Amino acid sequence: MYEELKNGKYQVKISNKSYACPYCPEKRTRDFRYEDLLQHATAIGSCSSQNVKRTERDKANHVALTKYLQTDIAVLPAGGGSKPPSAKSHAAAVLEQGLQGRDEVFVWPWTGVMVNIPTDLKNGHYVGKGEEARKTNICPYCPWRRTINFQYKDLLQHASAIATCSSKKRTAKDKANHLSLAKYLQIDFAVACAGSSTKPPSSSVVVEAVTDYDPSEMLVWPWSGVVVNIPVELIDGRYVGESGSKLRDRLSRRGFNPIRVRTLWIDKWHSGTAIVEFRKDWSGFADAMFFDKDYEVNNHGKTNWLAKTDKSSDLYAWIARVDDYNANDVIGETLRRFGDPRTVLDIMEEEARKTNKLVISLTNTFESKKRCLLEMESKVKETESSLSQLIVERDNIRRVYNEEIRKIQSSAWDHYKKIFKDHEKLKVELETQKRDLERRGQELMKRETHNKIERERLAEELEQNAVKNCSLQAAAKEQRRADENVMKLAEEHKKQKEKLHKRIIQLEKQLDAKQAVQLEVEQLRGKLNVMMHMGHEGDLRVLNKVELLIKALREKEEELQDLEALNQYLILQERNRNNDLQDARKELVNRMGELDSKPFHEAMKKKYNEAEANERASELCSLFEEYLRDPEWHPVKVVDVNGTHQVWL
């Protein structure tokens, strides 16, 4: 880094009096004196490591700049006369001249004490002045800021920025206060510093300008300067000279800070004159006055230009005044086209009027905002009061609601326990009924099995009876040969027996149907009881099903009653016919003689072989003869089985 500075990569020295920091291009104050630049580089190079804004590279760059200023710039000859003092030579001079023969004890690091700092009470606030104001200027309206000590230009920039900002964080009162502070720094503070031997370094030109200038003298505003004797040369039949931008850069390097330079032309010919424009604020006025005095001190002012007949080739310049404004030349025409003649007092009074108007407007705005704030505070208090009342009411409502909820929950719990108990009771009853139905079902199954066995046995007996009927038919044929009346009676008896057999089969079917109907009725009654218990829970579908079951039960009961009535009627008919048959049999038996064994042999041959058929036929014929001799014997009987009349052969 030091080698880059030494090789001339960066430009540090701008002119004999001004220097620049090549590592701080963004810094607003770019033109330093040698002492200021050395102090700037030393301060940044030796700042603490806690400073986040400065990187290690920045510190190293400024350390190299300090070394370059102390070693290379200090020993170089100044191009126009004096050279900047060297820090090492200055320290040596102090040691040699000031401390010879003195045996005193000093505080180290070297420390000085400064007292009786001049201050000025303006509008009830103290503001520091003088050379020490570099670090003692403070903003009286921002005591909470971390950076309390300002340089004059920094404090002026701080006040102007807040006065013109549009942020909502700054109130109208803050903006008015900082606007007043900026006005004070630009006018009163600069004038007050003019009588002191030390001035704020950033406003020294302003102080000199305000002190040495007659406020009643009229100048051209915006602040302008006149430059004459610009070298011109004839090229291609026309006079040309240095451009305005080059002339502006040339003046800027000398510290005049112009914002624009207008070169004046007459019919496309360079007139050798130019108008220099400065900023419209007081710093621009200070630059214009410094511009005027610098050329006047160097004998290149307006007086020298007008007085001398043998003029040098250097530039002559001065601030534009009313006589330049009224001149009948290209300079006067240009000034009249872009400016107006005004005094400093007029400008100050106009700014004061604008400032007062702005302050009044801001004060009115502040008062309006204050009234609005008071109204809002009143509304906030009313809202808080009503909100507190609503909170109390809400708490009361919530307490009542919680109590009601607890009561409802308690009642619901009791109801649930009652329903649960009833449900358990009904469940037990249903289990009991279920067991009863299962038991009845088992009994019905047993009965059905028994009935099946009885039907099988009855079928066997019917088969035997059929065989017996064959024998009886054979006997009847034999008897017909004896007596036609007996034969007719036998035939009628046969028909009656056939009808009787059919009726027996029909009665068996009716008995089965009756038992099935009784079983179905019992099942329907069981389902009905279950549905009736289930219906307490409010199921509409279950209730509809119960009604259908009740209707079906009633139909089955009516069908059972019809079957019962039919059965009784058939039993009576059977008894009557049985009585008639017995009477006919008695009459037939009395007329019958011995039985013919031939039908018995034919019947037994169908079931047995020849030998066994003869034996069986003889036994059966003898048995029938014995049966016929017994008056109590009846081939057809009606037996009561489990309350049901059945026909037995």
Automatic annotation (TrEMBL):
<dbReference type="InterPro" id="IPR005380">
    <property type="entry name" value="XS_domain"/>
</dbReference>
<dbReference type="Pfam" id="PF03470">
    <property type="entry name" value="zf-XS"/>
</dbReference>
<dbReference type="GO" id="GO:0080188">
    <property type="term" value="P:gene silencing by siRNA-directed DNA methylation"/>
</dbReference>
<dbReference type="InterPro" id="IPR038588">
    <property type="entry name" value="XS_domain_sf"/>
</dbReference>
<keyword id="KW-0175">Coiled coil</keyword>
<protein>
    <recommendedName>
        <fullName>XS domain-containing protein</fullName>
    </recommendedName>
</protein>
<feature type="domain" description="XS">
    <location>
        <begin position="217"/>
        <end position="326"/>
    </location>
</feature>
<dbReference type="InterPro" id="IPR045177">
    <property type="entry name" value="FDM1-5/IDN2"/>
</dbReference>
<feature type="domain" description="Zinc finger-XS">
    <location>
        <begin position="139"/>
        <end position="182"/>
    </location>
</feature>
<feature type="domain" description="Zinc finger-XS">
    <location>
        <begin position="21"/>
        <end position="65"/>
    </location>
</feature>
<feature type="coiled-coil region">
    <location>
        <begin position="420"/>
        <end position="598"/>
    </location>
</feature>
<dbReference type="Pfam" id="PF03468">
    <property type="entry name" value="XS"/>
</dbReference>
<dbReference type="Pfam" id="PF03469">
    <property type="entry name" value="XH"/>
</dbReference>
<dbReference type="InterPro" id="IPR005379">
    <property type="entry name" value="FDM1-5/IDN2_XH"/>
</dbReference>
<feature type="domain" description="Factor of DNA methylation 1-5/IDN2">
    <location>
        <begin position="591"/>
        <end position="646"/>
    </location>
</feature>
<dbReference type="InterPro" id="IPR005381">
    <property type="entry name" value="Znf-XS_domain"/>
</dbReference>
<keyword id="KW-0943">RNA-mediated gene silencing</keyword>
